[in-house]
Amino acid sequence: MLQVVLDRLPEHRSGKNVTYAIRDAALGAFSVFYMQSPSFLAYQEQMQLNTGHNNGVSLFELKGIPSDNQIRNLLDPLDPEQLFPMFAEVTSQLEESGELEAFRDYRDNLLIVLDGTEYFSSQEIHCDNCSHRTHGDKTTYFHAVITPVMVAPGNSRVISLEPEFIVPQDGHEKQDCERAATKRWIEQYGARYAAFKATLLGDDLYCNQPLCEQVLEKKLNFIFVCKPDSHPELYQMVAFLDANGQVEQFSERIWKGKYAEIRTYRFVNTVPLRAGADALKVNWCELTIQNETTKKITYRNAWATQHEISHATVKAIVQAGRTRWKVENENNNVLKTKGYHFEHNFGHGSQHLAAFLLTLNLLAFLFHTVLDLTDAKYKLLREKLRVRKTFFDDLRALTRYMYFESWEHLMDFMIANLKLPPPVDTG
Ligand SMILES: [Zn+2]
After folding, report:
1. Does the pLDDT of residue 215 top 90, yes or no?
2. CA–CA gap between residue 271 and residue 347 (Å, rounded)
3. Are 75 and 356 in contact (CB under 8 A)?
4. Rounded Cα gap, residues 425 and 376, in angstroms
5. Residue 200 Cα, ligand 1 centroid: separation in angstroms?
6. Interval between CA 42 and ligand 1 midpoint (Å)
7. At how many degrees (to 10) do helices 22-35 and 353-374 cross?
8. How many CA atoms lie within 13 A of 160 on its CB side?
9. Ligand 1 centre and the CA of 24: distance in Å?
10. 3-class secondary structure, 379
């Protein structure tokens, strides 16, 4: 699937100096992210010189090994959106094969977390598409992006969806912001994910009337964090109703092994999200967790949703709302800290390079997740080499010193040498 998308990338060069195909530049960068190895291409070039074959050709179907400079120059002019069909293709295939069922939660909805992250920051290096902020006489250039992911409570995997880049508005100082980028994302992809049935999750930043109305227009659902500071009218109404005994409340005691915690749920339906007669009516719920012994409050958060809240549903809605925190742990952190090199020796480029590489990086992350869901041998190896660093250290070392004819060959070698029982092929 990736080959097909990369073969469609437009040729932007004129003249005859086209030693490397654009496809190879993109595939080369992808292989570096996929293998989590900044030196993967250099090692394969060395292997080619020494032995006449290399794993870049056999595992990634590279036709030639481009240098970091060539990758930068060939990819910089390309719009990353040209890679986006991959995300839709993967989610469609996961839906067809039934794998998305594991991601269905409240009322059979897919939970989609919206969250922004900065993936580049510098005071020196910048490009045409950098955002910037100024403190005194210092300017910091940065790139930010919304990276939506599907999540499910109790499932450590996340499925990356199409990103939305936060880019400066045409020629003016006015900086694009997370909300505007989110609106663009919902406009473009909302209907598609609504067809799957989906609930959007997000922090307080998303919990405002224009965005919630847009979500509902697209026939999506939402559970957004709803803080008192940014919703004074809603909280006045909750306080008023509470004083009249109209806010539902119940508590439960959960034994945690060494101590007990008291979880208190409060909820009320049909309260105004903001001031004014045209205020959208939302349903509100809150969870407070208190240590029974010390009386210390260890957690408190509240959400606004259009799902109707009752004694029967409040716990499931709160659980879905809390799942949004997974995105910090599972996606952006993995991308930042676990070896998906955001800032790599390809440099920054002057046009789209940073965003294009980020998209390839998200795809590498997505491919690992999909393999872990669908490929018996990959899954077996990831279970055995539980620490992700160990798994990728082994891949790096093996592919540096040895030649493998295919992924099958590589994985069979690892399974045999780890003395694992080969998985039954269900494919
Ligand atoms: Zn830039």
Report:
1. yes
2. 50
3. yes
4. 7
5. 29
6. 26
7. 60
8. 29
9. 23
10. helix
Q: Coil, strand or helix: which one is 222?
A: strand
What would the pLDDT profile of 282-297 be if each residue is shown by its tens digit? 999 999 999 999 999 9
DSSP string, 299-357: EEEEEEESS---TTTHHHHHHHHHGGGHIIIIIIHHHHHSS--SS-TT---SSSHHHHH
143 Cα–ligand 1 center, Å: 6
Is pLDDT above 60 for 175?
Answer: no
Q: How far is the CA of 26 from the centre of ligand 1 (A)?
A: 19
Ligand 1 geometric centre to CA of 130 (Å): 4
Tell me, in angstroms, the distance from the centre of ligand 1 to residue 381's CA. 38
Contacts of 377 (CB under 8 A, 6+ apart): 408, 411, 412, 415, 422, 423
Distance between Cα 356 and ligand 1 center (Å):
11
Higher pLDDT, 328 or 10: 10
Distance 389 CA to ligand 1 centre (A): 29
Ligand 1: centre distance to CA 22 (Å): 21
- Tell me the C-alpha distance between 203 and 146, whole Å: 13
Residue ranges of the alpha helices (H) in 218-292?
232-243
Dump pLDDT digits (tens) for 221-262.
999 999 999 999 999 999 999 999 999 999 999 999 999 999
Distance 344 CA to ligand 1 centre (A): 14
Does the pTM of the predicted model rise above 0.85?
Answer: yes
Compute the distance from residue 259 Cα to the ligand 1 centre, in Å. 50
CA of 132 to the centre of ligand 1 (A): 9
Give pLDDT tens digits for 17-46: 565 689 999 999 999 999 988 899 999 999
Alpha-carbon span 44 to 49, nearest angstrom: 9
173 alpha carbon – ligand 1 mean position (Å): 15
For tokens 């992700």, name the residue: 388
Cα of 118 from ligand 1 centre, angstroms:
11
Helix (H) or strand (E) segment spanning residue 185: helix 178-196
Q: What is the mean pLDDT of the chain?
A: 90
